[in-house]
UniProtKB/TrEMBL annotation:
Name this polypeptide is given: PTS IIA-like nitrogen-regulatory protein PtsN
Family annotation (SUPFAM superfamilies): Phoshotransferase/anion transport protein
Annotated organism of origin: Erythrobacter sanguineus
Pfam families recorded: PTS_EIIA_2 (PF00359)
One function term, GO molecular function aspect: protein kinase activator activity
The PTS EIIA type-2 domain, residue ranges: 1-147
Domain of life: Bacteria
InterPro entries: PTrfase/Anion_transptr, PTS_EIIA_type-2_dom, PTS_SugarTrans_NitroReg
Length: 153
């Protein structure tokens, strides 16, 4: 399945953030900077989605996501947190990896396919450990681009 998921090296960051609100703001900023989008619109949309229920996926992963009228294809940002953060995840585990996703407004199935691709990646314990052990954003980018290219094949 070809998700055609955009991932920019500038959309990956290692950071210390001490609140869920701070994570959503940081994801909005990363997405805005990397893909030339409106930070305020993204933050508003991410917060609205989070208000419906936590995007804490489990296994230390959160996948905050939203849609935007200004994006052409699903686009990803990733933050690896220096310290675990409470995120009201389904399994009650704190989060260390945040995968932010923004998709076009009317990209129903495409948005779901992108979420599924991220979900598959983060359900694989070996890949999750590789992301946790990656020394820098460049190594994370290499791991992710290789993975998504393989999934698309």
């Amino acid at each position: 399945m070809d998700v055609n998921l955009a991932l920019s090296p500038q959309a990956i960051q290692f950071d210390r953030i001490d609140s869920k609100a701070g994570v959503l703001a940081a994801i909005a900023q990363l997405l805005a900077d990397a893909y030339d989008l409106d930070r305020e619109e993204l933050l508003e949309n991410l917060e609205a989605r989070e208000a419906l229920g936590s995007t804490g996926f489990g296994r230390g992963v959160a996948i905050p996501h939203c849609r935007s009228k200004n994006v052409r294809r699903p686009s990803l940002a990733l933050i690896r947190l220096d310290q675990p953060l409470e995120f009201a995840a389904a399994d009650a585990r704190p989060v260390t990896l945040v995968c932010g996703l923004v998709s076009p407004e009317n990209a129903g199935a495409t948005h779901l396919h992108a979420l599924a691709a991220i979900s598959r990646l983060t359900r694989d314990e070996a890949k999750l450990q590789m992301l946790a052990d990656a020394p820098d954003a460049e190594a994370v980018y290499a791991l992710l681009t290789h993975q998504f290219e393989r999934d698309a094949a």
